[in-house]
Write a structure and sequence with these properties.
- It is a single chain.
- This protein is α/β, with parallel strands linked by helices.
- The chain contains 22 helices and 21 strands.
- It has 3 domains: about 1-70 and about 70-125 and about 335-350, ATPase, nucleotide binding domain (Nucleotidyltransferase, domain 5, 2-Layer Sandwich); about 135-330 and about 360-380, ATPase, nucleotide binding domain (Nucleotidyltransferase, domain 5, 2-Layer Sandwich), CATH 3.30.420.40; about 385-625, DHBP synthase (Alpha-Beta Complex), CATH 3.90.870.
- Strands 13-21-20-14-15-19-16-18-17 form a 9-stranded mixed β-sheet, with helices on both faces.
- It is globular.
Length: about 625
């Protein structure tokens, strides 16, 4: 193949549309469409994300060698048709509602993609779970590994077990619709009043406030779990396969009444439901992982699919599962399918060899979970580049933007910037950090992040209620220097993508008073439980991000400066956005979010904006401007 080979991967039309571009097998850029359009979970064709990827490579669409879509729409249509017939007449109404879109667009997806891209090039189609599996295995540092994918549903598959060796990858075991662990979890997301494909994080965060009082009811009436982790749902108690809602009368009878209305207060029932479905989900994930180990005989595991974002379950697989090493795709949801199908085209369709970090000799086993013999999760030596794959803005870009907007900010020498930010954090100020390439995937990892002092007992409430404008119970992630993680958490390994939960180290915990210990449910929220209360959940757990300097120098140096000032190498990180908005992408997005919240300081590359110094009403107003 003369010249560079460019492969463009696409995901779209369900949720979290995205594009990814490879040059000779290496990721040039990847981004979700929502970041450009400012429509959360945007499902439209990722025109802006494609344009960004082509810009990053310095090419036009005519230079792209192969274009691939992450799933097979005709097979998906087959599932819709067969399911509707199987549950008729109840399935007739949703089927008829879906038909105009399918007959008008989705059945002619190749034509639609060609039209949107302005090309007549043949469009290649992958398989949904094979795309997930490829996104998990190919960027991992492992030369060989078992692969586990779990989500709601692709074409027919809802979970799969596979094996990757070199550049070969195959799926060897599958579960098919309607039996789905992801859809079980989403049913509880819906029943507890949260939005499906968005509120699952809330269920995971709410679970520690509850008791597992409904576990028996779930196992007896909703799901049959085999020893190997395969599942069967009792479809009589669900509606997703035959109606327009996830649940109905079956759930209401089992769990004592109708679903919570989205704006109603969260009650103890919702907390107990969240805890119960979380426990069942973790057990199924563990059984699936053990089966993957037994079926493949491999001691490394790669994971993807929406359920792989369940970092509590991931933490249990690491601690209790049979694998020595674990790597999880940071863009595990449908957005990552664009990356996966592009890599599948390069390695499987084109037969190109793969040189893993293990084969390159740049990956060596890390020490694992404290107190265990396992080697744990690998360091950053994967091919995801820290998931920092989106647009970046230079100091010159920021300066030009400031001139256009008539704004003023203080330019700080890069060498002095970490200490400056650490000083603001140590004073319990909230800092928006906008630097480097935007993250790919749902987690903010220090490029588009909001930072706070993890030692502050009030920081969780401040961030939730005054910055994020979201539910007070939502936990925040601690960010810690990689070399200090074992001093503060029950983990001695890497967690670069914020996809593992582990306990706060017992020596950092604070024993609640007898009065505090008697609190129930949401009353537990404001109890100080450790030296880093803003990052410690009510069960002493934490969703950890470890940071190495070679991947994100400024982020690391801020942590180092904060440790030098306070003795604590841990701060709080949450995504740079407010409720119901995507993570910020451009300077306009960041400044607008800064001005409409109670954030104290905004750092954009080497420029510092202090809220009290900003003129009122200077925030950019046009949503269209954010896309420019």
């Amino acid at each position: 193949m003369p010249g560079p080979v460019y492969v463009l991967g696409l995901s779209a039309y369900y949720h979290d549309s995205a594009a990814c571009l490879l040059r000779d097998g290496r990721i040039v850029g990847a981004a979700q469409e929502e970041r450009f359009t400012r429509i959360k979970h945007d499902a439209s064709f990722p025109s802006n994300a494609v344009a960004y990827c082509l810009r990053e490579a310095g090419i036009g669409i005519e230079d792209v060698t192969h274009v691939a879509f992450y799933e097979k729409p005709l097979v998906k249509f087959d599932r819709l048709l067969e399911t509707s017939v199987a549950v008729s007449p109840r399935g007739f109404r949703p089927f008829m509602m879906a038909m105009p879109l399918w007959l008008g667009e989705k059945l002619w997806q190749a034509d639609e993609i060609q039209k949107a891209l302005g090309t007549e090039q043949t469009i290649l189609f992958g398989n949904h779970h094979e795309s997930h599996a490829a996104s998990a295995f190919y960027p991992s540092p492992f030369e060989d590994a078992a692969v586990l994918t779990i989500d709601g549903v692709g074409e027919w598959t809802t979970s799969s077990i596979g094996a990757g060796r070199g550049h070969a990858l195959s799926l060897i075991k599958e579960t098919h619709f309607p039996h789905s662990l992801g859809l079980l979890y989403s049913a509880f997301t819906y029943f507890t009043g949260f939005k499906v494909n968005e509120g699952e994080y809330k269920i995971m965060g709410l679970a520690p406030y509850g008791e597992p009082k409904y576990v028996a009811a779930i196992r007896d009436h909703l799901i049959d779990v085999a020893a190997d982790g395969s599942i069967q749902l009792n479809l009589e108690n669900f509606e997703f396969h035959r109606g327009l809602t996830m649940t109905g009368g079956g759930f209401e009878r089992l769990f004592g009444g109708p679903r919570r209305e989205p704006d109603a207060p969260v009650t103890q029932r919702e907390m107990d439901l969240a805890r119960s479905v979380q426990e069942v989900t973790e057990e199924v994930m563990l059984r699936m992982a053990r089966t993957a180990h037994r079926e493949t005989g491999l001691d490394r595991l790669c994971m993807a699919g929406g359920v792989a974002l369940n970092c509590v379950g991931n933490g249990r697989i690491l601690r209790e599962g049979p694998f020595r090493h674990l790597w999880i795709q940071p863009a595990s949801g449908d957005a990552g399918g664009a990356l996966g199908v592009a890599l599948a085209i390069w390695h499987r369709y084109l037969g190109q060899p793969r040189t893993s970090a293990e084969r390159r000799g740049t990956w060596t086993p890390a020490v694992g979970v404290s107190g265990s013999a396992r080697d744990g999760v690998p360091p950053y030596d994967d091919d995801m580049q820290g998931a920092l794959l989106g647009p970046a803005y230079s100091d010159d870009d920021i300066a030009a933007w400031m001139t256009r907007r008539g704004l003023e900010g203080e330019r700080v020498r890069r060498a002095d910037l970490p200490a400056r930010v650490a000083g603001h954090l140590a004073s319990e100020q909230v800092v928006g950090l906008f630097q480097g390439r935007m993250e790919f995937g749902p987690r903010a990892l220090g490029a588009r992040s909001i930072l706070g002092d993890a030692r502050s007992p009030k920081m969780q409430s401040v961030l939730n209620l005054k910055i994020k404008f979201r539910e007070s119970f939502r936990p925040f992630a601690p960010v810690v220097l990689r070399e200090r993680v074992a001093d503060w958490f029950e983990l001695d390994g890497e967690s670069p993508y914020m996809l593992l939960v582990a306990g706060v180290s017992p020596r950092r915990r604070v024993t609640p008073s007898s009065a505090d210990d008697r609190l129930w449910g949401i009353e537990k929220l404001n109890v100080v439980r450790s030296e880093i209360p803003a990052a410690t959940h009510v069960d002493y757990s934490a969703r950890i991000q470890t940071v190495r300097r070679e991947v994100n120098p400024l982020y690391y140096d801020i942590l180092k400066a904060f440790e030098a000032r306070t003795g604590c190498p841990v701060i709080v990180n949450t995504s740079f956005n407010v409720k119901d908005e995507p993570i910020v992408c451009t300077p306009d997005d960041a400044y607008r979010c800064f001005m409409k919240t109670n954030m104290d300081v905004l750092v954009m590359e080497d420029f510092v904006f202090v809220k009290t110094a900003q003129a009122a009403g200077r925030a950019p107003e046009s949503a269209a401007a954010a896309a420019r």
